[in-house]
Specification:
Blueprint (H helix, E strand, L loop, with lengths): L1 H12 L5 H34 L5 H38 L3 H12 L11 H24 L6 H23 L5 H10 L1 H15 L8 H31 L1
Length: 245
């Protein structure tokens, strides 16, 4: 079931219906990357130049220029590596402004008989995105620190991100239709399924370039999964009520 929903969600994310939202999210994400990379490279190069100071002769001038250029190049490389590490939180933070639109598109197109969910207020959406971003950065920083321990870092990356991504994106879909307390009960009841779903999202996240569509894909995936689990829970409740009669 999860694999079928994931394949459907990837196809949806790349389909014409979602292409404007996806392109808008990608455009702002890439712009944020460019601003951070260029600004960070310039700042580090300036700091390196300040450290070198004003040279007293031509060879010191040449050495200072080479040091400044080398620092700029090195900082650019380091910032690029750092941005690869930050791709998830940055793309999630940017995409959070568009995810309610993605969820609504899925609901209107694929579940026309059901009521459309209530969008999250902008302030709440931004706060949730900032909170989630901070948690993701912290968890992935810990995983990065485990790079020296072969095997453990990959396990930590997939399971920590699987748990976080499954939880956060499912709540985004569920809170459009139910109070937080009820959404958390549903999430805990299906914790194993959501962990597996989160691992699928983490797998997409680990593929370069494809990981840029992760927020849109994960939102579509979790809207479908929420609809499926909610229907299953309602059916089980009806069966239990019928058995008690």
């Amino acid at each position: 079931m999860l694999i079928a929903l994931a394949r459907r969600s990837i196809a949806d994310a790349l389909s014409p219906a979602f292409r404007p939202l996806l392109l808008r999210s990608l455009m702002w994400t890439l712009l944020a990357f460019a601003v951070v990379w260029v600004g960070g490279t310039w700042l580090i190069a300036r700091l390196a130049g300040s450290v070198v100071g004003q040279p007293a002769s031509w060879w010191l001038s040449w050495a200072g220029g080479a040091a400044s250029w080398g620092a700029g190049l090195l900082s650019g490389i380091l910032l690029f590596v750092g941005l690869m590490f930050l791709i998830v939180p940055i793309s999630t933070l940017i995409a959070s402004l568009f995810l309610d639109g993605v969820a609504e598109t899925v609901e209107r197109r694929d579940y026309p008989a059901d009521p459309v969910g209530t969008p999250t207020e902008l302030g709440t959406s931004i706060w949730n995105a900032l909170r989630f971003t901070a948690v993701v950065i912290t968890i992935n920083a810990i995983c990065l620190a485990l790079l020296l321990v072969p095997g453990i870092n990959l396990v930590a990356f997939f399971f920590s991100n699987g748990y976080l991504l499954g939880r956060e994106y499912f709540e985004l879909a569920a809170l459009r239709h139910r109070p937080r307390a009820e959404a958390e009960i549903l999430r805990r009841r299906h914790a194993g399924t959501l962990m597996l779903a989160g691992l699928i999202v983490a797998g997409i996240l680990s593929v370069p370039v494809l990981n840029l569509i992760t927020p849109v894909f994960a939102t579509i995936f979790m809207v479908h999964l929420h609809k499926h689990l909610a229907a299953e829970t309602a059916r089980l409740a009806l069966d239990a009520a019928a058995a008690r009669r």
